[in-house]
Write a structure and sequence with these properties.
Elements: H1 6-14, E1 32-35, H2 48-55, H3 61-70, H4 87-101, E2 105-109, H5 117-129, E3 133-137, H6 141-146, E4 150-154, E5 159-163, H7 166-192
Parallel strand pairs: 1-2, 2-3
Antiparallel strand pairs: 4-5
Helix pairs in contact: 3-4
């Protein structure tokens, strides 16, 4: 469901948006990495390589181009200005950033948007091999069936939690729906059942 606060939740955890109450405190050894589905932080006037250099000024060109290459950005493409990049190329550049951040907690907001099928498969394999903690907002059912082991569904009234991937989520959601229907069907019958004293007062009354 769109518009129920999934991206807001991610941005609040990472500190981009303020939270209205409570405390958000990361562990001492946590290193977070964040993927923004709109890639709004990218400077349109820079080349991909220059953007990487600005983000990681102590890295050499080989390290930066290796990260870009792993994100399927190679050759002269790294000298293209960001303003002319496709949505898929911007997404790959953002993933190259993530690689060099070396976070052990990744927060990804719709990571498969704009990616072609091959790039989605590469990303899926990388996330399956990732040994840290992953918190991901996604509508990609295939990805949700392969990567997560726990799903939080944001609804208009709150959050529901499910163990497993998308197939497990769908099956459990169906079971909960049937249980709720059975409970609603049983409630009128219980309400219609007459009391044992049929309205007469007992001696104790």
């Amino acid at each position: 469901m769109n518009g129920v606060g999934k991206s807001t939740f991610i941005k609040t955890l990472i500190g981009i948006l303020p939270h209205n109450g409570g405390i958000i405190e990361w562990g001492r050894n946590v290193r977070t990495g964040y993927y923004d589905q709109h890639n709004s932080y990218l400077n349109p006037n820079k080349t991909m390589l220059d953007e990487m250099w600005d983000m990681f000024p102590r890295s050499d060109e080989l390290t930066l181009r290796t990260a870009l290459g792993r994100a399927r950005l190679t050759g002269e493409n790294v000298f293209k200005k960001i303003e002319v990049l496709s949505g898929g190329e911007k997404a790959k550049l953002a993933f190259a950033h993530l690689m060099l951040q070396r976070g052990n907690v990744l927060l990804l907001d719709e990571p498969t948007n704009h990616l072609d099928l091959t790039s989605k498969e590469v990303l899926e394999e990388a996330l399956q091999e990732f040994e840290g903690t992953l918190l991901m907002v996604s509508h990609d059912r295939y990805m949700l069936n392969k990567v997560p082991d726990f799903i939080m569904e944001f609804t208009g009234t709150g959050v529901e939690t499910y163990k497993g991937g998308y197939d497990d989520y769908f099956a459990e959601k169906d079971r909960r729906r049937h249980r709720a229907q059975a409970q609603r069907a049983a409630e009128p019958a219980a309400a219609a059942k007459p009391s044992s004293n049929s309205g007469y007062r007992t001696r104790q009354q």
